[in-house]
Amino acid sequence: MRDQRSNVGAPSNGAQCKRCSRCRKTKPTTAFYRNPNSICKDCQNRASRFTNQIRRAAVAHLIATHQGEYRARMQAERAKRAAAEFGGGSDAA
Ligand SMILES: [Zn+2]
Prior knowledge:
By secondary structure, the chain is mostly helical. It has one domain. The protein is built from 2 helices and 2 strands, in the order E-E-H-H. It is elongated, with a radius of gyration of 25 Å. The model has no long low-confidence stretch (mean pLDDT about 85). The protein binds zinc ion (ZN). Zinc ion binds near residues 20, 22, 23, 39 and 43.
């Protein structure tokens, strides 16, 4: 039920719109997250995807550069966690 008269998306009276500081498009406030609220969801999503790609590339590079350390660390962590998870000897401190 819609009993509130809607101004059919008229952009002129700027009802609930604001401008994205990144793409400079004016969009309804629903196209923005609360935080950060200066850039629109599209820009926010694109930015976080970009950041994830950067992070993944950096981690992959680190692993490739330090393979020995990486493997050793993996084994150490696995042993430690497996012991805590399954082994759980007599003395659980
Ligand atoms: Zn934007």
